[in-house]
Structures are given as C-alpha cells and as structure tokens.
Specification:
The chain is mainly β and 389 residues long. Helix content is 5%, strand content 27%.
Length: 389
Amino acid sequence: MRQIVAIFATLFLVACGNVPTIKQTSTTVNDSLITVVFNDTTPLHFRITEKGEAVLTWDSRNKEPYSPNRYQYKGRLVIPNKIDVNGISYNVTSIDDYALVQQRALSELIIQDSITHIGRKALSGCDRLTRLVLPNTLKSIGEEAFSRCKRISNIELPDRIEYIGKYAFQGCALLESIAIPNSIKRIEEGTFFNCQSLTAVELPRTLESIASLAFSNCTALQYIEIPESITQLEAGILSLCTSLQKAKLPDCLNEIPEDMFGGCTALKSISLPASTKKIGSFAFSKCTGLENVQFNNSLEIIGMAAFNGCVSLKEIELPTSIRKVESFAFANCVAIKELHIKHTKPFEIGADLALPDINSKIYVPRGTIDQFQFKPIWKEYKLLEELHR
C-alpha cells in the first residue's frame, strides 16, 4: 500500500510539474573521470566502481575539491539516478566525499532515488542551499555532509536511513525541526550541534544511544523527550541549550552523563528517574535558572562540579542512598541556605567545596550529629540536628 501511495504521489508531482526532468545531452570520458552534461548546461562528474555503479564525484583535474577553478552550480541542481556511457547504463548509487563542497550559489538540491550514500563533507558549506530533497533509497550520510548549510530550514529524513555521521548537520542555523526515523539506532557525535533555530526534535522509540554533543548549543530548543529504549547517553548532549525548559528522561537511565545539561540556563526543575545512581561531573553546571532538583532514592554519587554555579538553588535534600559527593559538587550555589541529609552515617565528600558554602545550614538526622562532626572535612561545616523531618 505504501509503494502504491508513493507511486501515486510521484505521478501527481510530475503532473503538476514539481519534479524537474533532466536530459543527458553529452558525455566526455577522460581516463577514469566521466563528465556528463545535462540539459546542455549542467556538467556533473562521475566515476565507475568495480561493481559497475556510478558515483557522483568532483573534478579530479583540479587536484582538490576546493579548487577555485571548479564549476559553480547556481540555483537548482538535480542528481540523476542513472547515466549512459558508450551505450551502457549505470545506476548512480552514491555521492563522493567533497563532491559538492562549498557550492555557495547552489540554492536547491534534488537527489533522485537510487542513491544510497552521501559522503563526508559532500555538501558542507553550501550556505545558500534552502531546499533539500533526499532520496527514499538513502541509507547513510557521511560525517559533516551538510554541515554549515546555514539556510536549510527543513530536512525530511527517509525511512530507510540507517546511519548519519558525526556533525552531519552541525551549523544548519535555520533548521527548525527534525524527526529521526525508526531505522536509526544511534545519533552520532555532534550531529545537530549548533543548530540554533531547532525547536522540535522527535526521537524514535527504537533509539538506543545518543553520542556526545549531539544537540549541544541548540539554543532555541525548549523541550525534548528521550525515549525509554535508550541504553547509552554520552557527554554534553544538551549542553548550552539555553532555552531548554524541560527534558523528559527515560526511567531506565542509570547515569546522568557528564555535562549533559551544562549551561542550560532556562532549565528550572529536574526530576531524576528512579533508576539513576550517578550524576556525572558538570552535569548541571551553570544552570543558573535551576530552582528545584528532585533526587531519587537510588542516587549514590554526585560528580565533581555537578551543580557548580546553580545560583537559583535554595534548598537540597540528599537521600539515604548517597555514598559520595565529589569536590565542587555544589560550589558557587550562593542561594542554598539549607541542605538536608537523610543518611544516618557520614558519607564520602570531596575536599574542596563538595557541599554548599561553609555558612549554609546542613541538617543531619537526629542522634547522628556526633558521627558527622568528628569526621574529617565534615567538621568544617555548620551541622545541625534535624528536628521536624
């Protein structure tokens, strides 16, 4: 049924004139480089693989893809699904690394079905590209393939895609939304780094891992839901998302990774999942708007500088499960006046500013104050017995 709908949609678009037709008008073979001209005006360069497949490539006669002598494409460019060379038809299956890098006059790119791979930096720096149509056959996108395509506002990823490389869409400054298909199991490092207009992110319920800095510095993003299928989160995936107000975390999350929310200045409240045992170093560092943190009863470790500079935090309650609070964990949390400890025995704390300011009131369970006061480091703090909790 889906294929029938797709065919009908294609026929409809052709009838309406929205799918451009291209005609191969000349072919030149120079050693391994094949130059094909379409519609008498547009030259494209190809190479043929050992498997008999055509690959869109850059003009190797220029010695490097960035050469100022290369052909500059203007306006719309269509990548065909096949070419004919000396009477033989070849399917175009991929776009080479750097094939169309820094084509600064290119405004629209339509890639026809049959292409399965787009190479590393294939279209990096095409900063006037506003419209991108990816083929339904696409399975992989290389590292930095569309990085710094500053004017693209919409990208529809095909359902078959299995891999998107590191920093593939970094710096796509006008990209507003992205829906990751179910076929993607991992979002690689920095994939959407510095996409400063991104406001909507839809993650599939089959996603297993998100690599470091995946959505870092997406300064317009206000909400994100991380699915329950996640088994691994890496450092800084939401760092510097300065508009982020809420993040829904999966119940199965064992650790808040290092710098995950660092610099998320609009984040006001966070509730840790029931299974979280560790908050990584700098996880909430400089979240200057953070007012409330709900710790769970499984939390064991708060990492170094985890809440450093959270100047809006006023009160903290640490659960009985806590075993260690590392140095600078609550450093520069100038508004904290009270910290309530539920643990009946002193736990390990870092030597340097692990707890709030020395003048803060730290409450321990009734009948335990002597145990705390005679332990190194603990005796430096103003300890009080809990009376009402």
